[in-house]
Write a structure and sequence with these properties.
With about 120 residues, this protein is mainly alpha-helical. The protein is built from six helices and two strands; from the N terminus they run αββααααα. Strand 1 (about 35-40) and strand 2 (about 45-50) form a beta hairpin. The structure holds iron/sulfur cluster (SF4).
């Protein structure tokens, strides 16, 4: 299942309409984007944008722009939310090797099942 399946897009669109938000602006209300959900291509289940924002503790998942850019101006949101140093650590660090990534995903799945 793709993270951009119509069910996710329709559900998120309804939430945005319910919030009376203009997806291209209204930075003050952007915190409410955190309740939106998509199917995570890494974990294989539904996750909220709030989860993606803290996927690495104090940092968002490095794929956050790719996964969310079709739903709202996520880049603008992150410019407001993160410092330049945090954005650098999030998006400019070299990718981890596959084994480390697999262990991180396993740990993330374990945490989700406990919570
Ligand atoms: S941003 Fe990361 S955690 Fe969130 S849906 Fe995409 S891959 Fe999954």
């Amino acid at each position: 299942m793709s993270p951009f399946e119509p069910s996710n897009a329709q559900s998120n669109h309804k939430k945005l309409v319910a919030l009376n938000m203009n997806p291209d602006s209204d930075i003050k209300k952007m915190k409410q984007y955190e309740d939106l959900e998509i199917r995570c291509p890494r974990l294989g289940g539904q996750v909220t944008f709030a989860y993606c924002l803290h996927e690495r503790g104090d940092l968002p998942c490095p794929r956050v722009l790719t996964c969310w850019q079709t739903f709202f101006p996520v880049e603008t949101y992150l410019k407001e939310k993160l410092t330049p140093e945090e954005r650098g650590r999030c998006f400019n660090e070299p990718p981890k090797d596959k084994i480390s990534t697999i262990f991180e995903i396993v740990e993330a799945v374990k945490k989700r099942k406990k919570g």
